[in-house]
Task: structure prediction
Amino acid sequence: MTFRKLTSGSVSLPGADSFPIYKQLPTDNSCGPRCILMVADYFEMERGRKLYAHEWSRVLEVTMKNDLTRDGGTSWEDMVRGLSAVGLNCKHIRGATPESSRRALSRPLERNHPVIVNCKIPYRGKPVRHYAVLVAMDDELLHFADPFPHKDTPAHSLRPVPWSEFQAGRWSKGATVWGRERWAVEVAYIAK
Result:
């Protein structure tokens, strides 16, 4: 997995360079459940196992109504329900300004909690709503475990996105942006 050395102001999950990355097909809308699968498997040691097949089936049912090509993909509400269905807790994160956004995203990583971010990515020249897992960041770049098979990112590599691009309020061609809504969730596993 490719992961460049972080610069100043960096924070990352332990084992960020080996974070599980599971790709969706370019023609399906399964980024939401794939992010849940990646995060659940990241917590393999705490959970005592990777996600079981019946748990994955439940995630697909809750988030996609068992239809990976469903228009609109996974709603924010269904993402939260899917995380809960496999015993993961989440806390909403929002950032109004660039500085509050950086703080809001770095704090969970400091607690060793991945962050599922709702953003917009380019697909066939248009912006589409998308989920990816933030696993590391520094003053220049954010590093995502991204389920979308971007042509410029090797299959099992973290996707680097410049802060200047990510925190733009509006989408521009080819950019990955957080946009105006700035919705994300910190994900944690709390043993019962």
